[in-house]
Write a structure and sequence with these properties.
Number of strands: 8
Structural class: alpha+beta
CATH class: Mainly Beta
Order of helices and strands: HHEEEHEEEEE
Helix content: 10-25%
Number of helices: 3
Distance between the termini: 89 Å
Number of domains: 1
Strand content: 25-35%
Shape: globular
CATH architecture: Sandwich
Length: 200
Amino acid sequence: MLKKYIFMLFAIIVLLSTSCTRNSTVSQPRVDRSGELWAEQTNIDVNGTDKNITTDGESAQLNDTVVPRVDFPVVEYKRLARKGRATVRGMIYLDDGYGGKVYGKNTRLYLNPVTSYSKQWYDESYIQGYKLSKADSRLYNYLKFTTSDGSGKFAFFGIPRGNYYVIGSVNHNGKKIRIADEISVKSSGTAQTVLSRSID
């Protein structure tokens, strides 16, 4: 009889501990297939990758007219791999022209696959300084995000093979100076890049 009561008491303790464990489970943030955290879509402005407004004193804004973007190439984007095994590492900074560097500390960076859509942005907005119409929200699904550390170093993980624009910015004297570059990523290993430009 005593053994029966001991067994029942043990069963009740096990049930109570299991219930407590289930209730204490914390929901995890959304993670993409490569294991890298993605920011919530409501917090992302895909136009933030644009150099639509010059902030570094250049007269690159050639025309106030908004240039319409090309149609979002759905088929082209569907062909892109969503996960990979490569890593992209780099550093972002401004060169002051005297041997000094202003590092992009704790800044958000984007990895944007090179397509006909992103190439228009790079050529007409980043290089030529034109303002483009609002980007298609579907672009968000193909961007990778990361944040640099206190010395301007950054890394993207789980990147598929292909060509990408790496985009970031450095704050200097109250101005946000955008920097972008095109890189090529192999199927595995590490691609190194340096995002830098001279302070005018």
